[in-house]
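Recap quiz, item 2
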Amino acid sequence: MSDLIYANFKTDSNHIELPEILKNKDSRADMPVRACVMATQALLEKLPSSIDLNNTNIVVVSRKGCEGHIRKVAEGIDQKKARHGFFVRGGPQTLATYTALAFGIHGAAFSAIGDESSIEEIFSMVSHMMNINESEASILIYLTHPDKKGYQAKSIFLNRAISAEDFSNKQFKLISKESV
Amino acid sequence: MNAYIANPKIITCLGNNQETWNGLIEGRSGLTPAEQAYPEWFEGNCSKVGILKEIDNSAPSRLTQIIKKIDANCIDQSALNLCDIVIGASSLGDLTGPFEGDPYGCIKQYLSKNHQGISEKFKTVITSACSSGTDVISMASSLVDSGTHDIVGVLAADCLDPGKILQHITLGTQARDQARPFDESRSGTSFGEGGGFALVVNQTGLTKLQKAFSNNVHYYSIKGFGMSCDAKHITAPDETGEIPALAIQRAINSANIKCDDIGYINAHASGTPINDTVESVAINKVFKSSLDNTCVGGSKGAIGHLLGATGFVEAVICCIALDYKTAPGTVGLTSKDKKIQLPVSASGIPAKFKQHIAMSITFGFGGVNSAIALMSA
């Protein structure tokens, strides 16, 4: 499969309802995590059910991680109080690991923090990682929080069949302002 | 893989590369009681933490102070100039202040102020909780192996402010006294701070470095890496050890080596009761009888758990172990838990090995598991 497969989750609200798929797993995900889960769900709905999630990586690129949860931790620290429930769910890695938890993805799961210019490097890293790390495929998500109003999470499916031409095309579509 | 780690340098609560190594070999710990590190926050007999010396506790960004320390001890401007890009590793960095939860912004601003022309090369921070430091080396090696870049600078840094200690004490992950990996009395880990810098290069990059530094380049081959995600729980590891074992097996497969080729495993060995048990199960699932020829140990009783930088620092400890063909004992371990089926040496009792490959394993919150195999050049 080498077709370009994308999905998009976009909301103008700063509140996102807990995705159904997380309800029996963990209900305290921060809003950016919920956006990533929704974007992944939309992507998986476009993919054949034969996708091997044991060998699929999940990588999320964003400028910041879970700002809401970290703010609550920081407010607690101002009063010398622990907010460990938010702390353990506030690391940037949770954008990827919560999504892995939601769908049972057992490949690599990590986040990359940076601005739009980091996308090219992340694309290259993840694409080549599949050749090294025996992984069949990768789901790459680019999360933005435009003007701090709402969230947009674009997800893209990559596999080893990707060509150089596909590569730049996919990368462009991931960062373009239009919905995919 | 066509990837090498060159001139890796670290700074921990024990000091630089050699000072850290000497401490590990001698069974010394650089940990300090939390009430001494932060008297305004903690009192009584608190557990120990691995904080760096001469850090200004009143500075608005502790992570900036840590990066400054790494810069002074580990970064050579001429090496930095040769980098095609620089990528970072951290977990959360500062929990409060101007870079609250934003290690990327913190590193970017530090480089912008202190290394002209380098901040434009700084692209991203890889963050996978306590596996960040391992994964950043793996991702840099992916970039050079693919030929996208020849020389990638890797900067791993994390800080331990009192607010972070507070969260971990409440969570129960911080030890009652100090990290005692694999010990029957272990009660948690000892968190710490620090990090380091290294160049990850391919053969072309290595040739460039050797030319620039008149062959004065100390390097190790990055043989392979593996990652997996438990996808089971936000904090607790997969108790079956199956998914963590997958990361280790993937690293061995990508390195195209056999378990017998590995002389030393620097385990995650956090010292929490569940982590060490799961790690023992996972390593045994992969290595089986090959463990008879392998030394296993952990470093967190000596230098603490350096959060997002721990994987980087422990990979560099593997490199030094390859230089000496010696596995340090596990500081904090005095009486091994009988359930731990690993060939672990106690504190201050180093062991020799013959092989040319070492492996560093890290686990992190969210169920991330990472392993990297490094070889003497």
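Strands of chain A lie at 5-11, 56-62, 109-113, 137-144, 151-159.
The longest strand of chain A covers residues 151-159.
End of item.
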